[in-house]
TrEMBL record:
The protein's name in its UniProt record: Disks large 1 tumor suppressor protein-like isoform X2
SUPFAM superfamilies: L27 domain (SSF101288)
Highest taxon of source: Eukaryota
Gene: LOC113469879
GO cellular component: cell junction
InterPro entries (UniProt xref): L27_1 (IPR015143), L27_dom (IPR004172), L27_dom_sf (IPR036892)
Domain called L27: residue spans: 1-62
Family annotation (PROSITE patterns): L27
Species, as recorded: Diaphorina citri
Length: 62
């Protein structure tokens, strides 16, 4: 479930990034590129997998 949501968030970011064509969007494009690289990193994927059980438990008990 979390992997699917993370993948969907990545798709949305990439789509939004592709629509930023104005030169004034350069800083925003750069920031989004950094976030996209983080989402695609193996470390992020590993952390997402390790943290999911704890996040699920915390959300269910709140």
């Amino acid at each position: 479930m979390v992997y699917g949501e993370a993948h969907r968030a990545l798709e949305l970011l990439e789509d939004y990034h592709s629509k930023l064509t104005d030169p004034s969007d350069k800083q925003l494009r750069s920031a989004i590129e950094r976030v996209i690289r983080i989402f695609k990193s193996r470390l992020f994927q590993a952390l997402l997998g390790k943290l999911f059980p704890y996040l699920s438990c915390a959300l269910l008990t709140s």
